[in-house]
Structures are given as C-alpha cells and as structure tokens.
Automatic annotation (TrEMBL), chain A:
<feature type="transmembrane region" description="Helical">
    <location>
        <begin position="12"/>
        <end position="35"/>
    </location>
</feature>
<keyword id="KW-1133">Transmembrane helix</keyword>
<dbReference type="InterPro" id="IPR001851">
    <property type="entry name" value="ABC_transp_permease"/>
</dbReference>
<keyword id="KW-1003">Cell membrane</keyword>
<keyword id="KW-0472">Membrane</keyword>
<feature type="transmembrane region" description="Helical">
    <location>
        <begin position="272"/>
        <end position="290"/>
    </location>
</feature>
<feature type="transmembrane region" description="Helical">
    <location>
        <begin position="42"/>
        <end position="62"/>
    </location>
</feature>
<keyword id="KW-0813">Transport</keyword>
<keyword id="KW-0812">Transmembrane</keyword>
Automatic annotation (TrEMBL), chain B:
<comment type="similarity">
    <text>Belongs to the ABC transporter superfamily.</text>
</comment>
<dbReference type="GO" id="GO:0015807">
    <property type="term" value="P:L-amino acid transport"/>
</dbReference>
<dbReference type="InterPro" id="IPR003439">
    <property type="entry name" value="ABC_transporter-like_ATP-bd"/>
</dbReference>
<dbReference type="InterPro" id="IPR052156">
    <property type="entry name" value="BCAA_Transport_ATP-bd_LivF"/>
</dbReference>
<keyword id="KW-0029">Amino-acid transport</keyword>
<dbReference type="InterPro" id="IPR027417">
    <property type="entry name" value="P-loop_NTPase"/>
</dbReference>
<protein>
    <submittedName>
        <fullName>Branched-chain amino acid transport ATP-binding protein LivF</fullName>
    </submittedName>
</protein>
<dbReference type="GO" id="GO:0005524">
    <property type="term" value="F:ATP binding"/>
</dbReference>
<dbReference type="GO" id="GO:0015658">
    <property type="term" value="F:branched-chain amino acid transmembrane transporter activity"/>
</dbReference>
Length: 298, 225
C-alpha cells in the first residue's frame, strides 16, 4: 500500500507534462481539422525561449521568483509572434484539403523549425532550473517530492478548467464551438471563421510553448525535444480521442501512471508504455476514449 | 434592394449559374421556383458569399457585396436559413437564436428586442428554448432556422426550400408564420426558393423561374403548370 501515494504523485506529475503537449494539438485539431506536426516545434521553441530569457534573468541577477512570470511570458511571446503568422502563411491554405497534404505541409514546417532552432540556439543542451530550485521540496508519506512537480499538476488542472470555462461560458468559446460544429452556417450568422481559426491556432501554439517552457526547469532542452513531443502528443491525443480536451487530460493521466508503474516494476518498458496504451485503447475503441467516428479524421 | 447583375458561378468546369440578373425590391416577397439541381441553393449560397462569383456583381442598395467579407452579410442584415436547418447541436434553441447577436456584438437591448420579436412571431420557439439544437425534429428545426435567420435579417431574408420535407400540418404552420412575418416586417425583403410554390400563394409578390442555372420572370400561375 505504501507505494500507492508516490505512484500517484509521480504519475500525475508525469501526466501534467504529457497533458501540456497533447492539449494544444487536440484543440487545434478539433477547431481547424488540421493535424499539426509543427506543434512539436512550438513546444521546443517555447522551451528554448524560456531557457534563454531565464538564463539572461539569472545572469542579470534578477530574483529567481521571476522565473515563473518568465515561463509564462516566453510562451505568450512565442504564441503572439508565431501563432497568427504561421496560421496566415501556411496553415490557412490547408483547410479542407486532404490530410496527407496537411501533414506534409506541417511536417515541412517542423523540419524548417528544427534547423532554425539549431541555427539560433546551437546544438548543445540548455538548462535553467531556477524555478525548480526556488520552490524547494516537500515530504509526502516519507518521500521527498519537488514542489515544482506539484505545481505542474496544479497548473494542468488550471488549464483543463480554464479551457472548459472558455469554451462553455465566454463569447469566444461559443463562437469557437459554433465554428467547430458548422463553419459554413457560422459564417452566415456573422462569425468571422478565419479569425476564429487564427485565435484557436494561437491558443494551441501558446499551450505547446507553455508545455515546453514548463518542462525546462526539470529536463532542460536539447535538439530532438520537438520530435519527442510531437510523437508523444499524437499518441496521447489519439488515446483521448482526437479533438477531445477532457479526453487528452484522461489519456495523459493514464499514460503518466502507466509510465510510472513501468518505472517501478519493469523499467525497460517505460519508453514504450504510451504506445502500448495507445495500441490497447485503439484496439478496443478505434476513435479513442472520448472520440466519435465523426470527430476522427485520420 | 438586392440586385444580381449577370452573376455567374462555376465549379469543377461547369457553369451552375449562367449570368443571372434579377432584383429583389425592398419589402417584397419573391419566390424562386425550379427543379432540384436547377441552381436555387447555389443562388442563395452565392448571395451569402459561400460560393465565389466568377463574373458579375451582387449589390445591396448599391453596395457591392464583393467588398464585404463572407461573414459580413449578417452585419448588413441579410439573414439566411439553409434547407437542411443546420442547428448547432450542442447549443440550446435559445443559444442557437442568440448566436448571431453574439457574433455581431449586438447590445443587450437590441438582442432582447430581436429575441422578443422572434418569440412573438413563433411562440412555439419559446417553449423549445431550453431544448438542445441536436434534439429537434425536422419541423421544429425548420422553425428555429427561420427564427435564427430573423435574428439577423433586418433588410433581406433568404429561405432555402423551407417546406421541403415538412408534414402538411407543419408546412401550413410555417406558411402562416411567413405570412405573419410579411405582415409585421413590411420593410423586409424575402426570397424563398421552392420546388412546389403552392403554399406561398398568399404572400408572394412575384415569381422567378430558375432552370439549369438561368433565371426568368414568371407568374405563380404559370409555374404551377
């Protein structure tokens, strides 16, 4: 029984990071109907920007508590600079086109971003853990945990709840839901669907960049992070049902827990756990846990 | 007045509207009659900006609609009820009705006024107001679609085959509602497409016949033959 609590805490901490990767991907898919491979790039760019600004703040002697606003500002910066721009220059032209084309376009974007990141940030790994250090540790049931990990769990819950409130109770949320349900009728009722797509894509970029930024204090950033993120993100989004935000949350918890259980009992299996879970879930429910045949496009 | 000047629409190498010209005078009811596939839905969708013109112009009171983005039709007061109802399933009936006021950022008093007037015209919608849009029957959906178009329509309302698929009693009810709309909104310009125009006899001012993408003036009496 002693193992239950550490398993849960570790599992949920892992789940929260996984959730941040998948939630933006699934949001963008549900609104734009585009499977965005470049999502992984926004994740790693968010990480690089957070580490760079964080490193600058540390060398300037600023308070380590500023790390938290810096993580948030980094994600907002990436979203504001890249979201509307990438949507208007590339993604927009793939709406309603065959999935293969969408994947090729976003994969090309991903490759371009990979090289740009190496060009700008170099190929060495970067670390900036001020946010983790300053929060210290807690003891739960005799085991030491990083408070930063607990913060991540809380933040993931905040994101799930905020997205739900945004969708159900705000003007923007209702316009997004209407466009998701019926883009054409939405336009005839006065909704600027193009703007809704741009905003939804930018929110997706923000969530990806935030995920990347939040991951840096514990794991740093190095080339290849974006590829890891997108593969894992796809698996989790598929398990939850593509386009299902709550589904992504549940899938992240399942994958997080399964990874931690593997670490405890069969460490060699840890890297394949997300895909084993995906295999089992998709065999039983081909459209994911929360998915329907209609919502699925690929 | 809404005017089509030599409007041409092509897709997939086929011309589906052939240089169509007609006027919809303000405050009048025009019915467009034609077989399935003649171009009725295409005409309405083109006016709404959902299909691009390959030649010609569409103007409303002299303003060229080419200068207005597709979603800008609603702000100009052009309401549209597509043939297949198209409710937002996750929204209640009232949320469906209010969606355009949300999109157009109408103030509270205008919103309340428009909703009140739609409920007054169609009291049955008030009873359905809490029902999810996805749970409506075909006839109820048609009424809500009409109500939603009326929430937008201050100048023109376009109704695509409103009687299609309605049971006779419901069709009669719909026709009565249309007569009430005609009576209470004297300035509103109506364009109704129909393959069987009998139900519209009472409210129609003029009839257009559309055949293979070409439009000509006709009379209801002629169209019945």
């Amino acid at each position: 029984m002693d193992i239950i609590i550490p398993l849960l805490v570790d599992g949920l901490a892992a789940a929260s990071l996984i959730f941040f990767i998948a939630v933006g991907l699934t949001l963008v898919f549900s609104v734009l109907r585009v499977l965005n491979v470049a999502h992984g790039s926004f994740y790693s760019i968010g990480a690089y920007v957070a580490v760079s600004i964080g490193g600058w703040a540390a060398s300037a002697g600023l308070s380590p508590w500023l790390s938290f606003p810096i993580l948030l500002i980094s994600a907002a910066l990436v979203a504001a600079l890249l979201g509307p721009f990438i949507e208007a220059t590339f993604i927009r032209y793939t709406y309603g086109k065959p999935e293969a084309l969408q994947i090729l376009v976003t994969f090309a974007l991903f490759l371009i971003f990979e090289d740009l990141q190496k060009l700008v940030f170099g190929v060495q790994a970067h670390y900036q853990d001020a946010a983790m250090q300053v929060l210290g540790v807690s003891e739960i049931g005799g085991i030491i945990y990083l408070n930063y990990q607990l913060l991540l769990i809380a933040l993931a819950v905040v994101v799930v709840v905020s997205l739900r409130l945004l969708m159900r109770h705000t003007r923007l949320g209702k316009l997004i839901l209407a466009v998701v349900a019926d883009p054409e009728v939405s336009v005839t009722l006065g909704i600027n669907a193009r703007q809704v797509y741009s905003i939804a894509f930018t929110i997706g970029v923000f969530l990806a960049a935030l995920g990347g930024a939040l991951a840096t204090p514990t794991s740093g950033v190095a080339p290849g992070l974006g590829a890891e993120a997108i593969v894992l993100g796809f698996a989790v989004a598929a398990i939850g049902g593509l386009g299902q935000i709550e589904g992504a949350a549940l899938a992240a918890v399942i994958v997080g827990l399964s990874r931690v259980i593997a670490i405890y009992y069969a460490p060699a299996f840890e890297p394949v756990m997300p895909y084993l879970v995906m295999l089992v879930v998709l065999l039983v429910r081909p459209y994911g846990l929360f998915g329907t045949a209609q919502a699925r496009r690929i | 007045m809404l005017v089509l000047h030599n409007a041409r629409v092509e897709f997939g190498g086929h011309t589906v509207l052939r240089d169509v010209s007609f006027e919809l005078p303000q405050g009048r009811t025009t019915v467009m009659i034609g077989r399935n596939g003649a171009g009725k839905t295409t005409t309405l969708r083109t006016i709404m900006g959902l299909l691009p013109l390959s030649a010609g112009r569409i103007t409303i009171d002299g303003q060229d609609l080419a200068e207005v983005p597709d979603h800008g039709r609603a702000a100009l007061g052009i309401g549209y009820a597509p043939e297949d109802r198209r409710m937002i399933p996750g929204f209640t009936v009232e949320e469906n009705l209010l969606l355009p006021t949300l999109a157009l950022k109408l103030d509270q008093s205008t919103t309340r006024e428009r909703l009140g007037s739609v409920y007054e015209l169609m009291p049955e919608l008030r009873e359905l107001s809490r029902r999810p849009g996805g749970s409506l029957s075909g006839g109820q959906g048609k009424m809500v679609a009409l109500g939603r178009a009326l929430m937008v329509a201050t100048r023109v309302i376009l109704l695509d085959e409103p009687f299609q698929g309605l049971a006779p009693a419901l069709a009669l009810n719909y026709a009565r509602t249309l007569a009430k709309v005609r009576d209470q909104r004297k300035d509103l310009t109506l364009l109704v497409t129909e393959s069987s125009p009998q139900l519209l006899g009472g409210v129609t001012d003029r009839a257009l016949q559309i055949e293979r993408g070409e439009v000509m003036e006709t009379t209801l009496a002629e169209a019945r033959h």
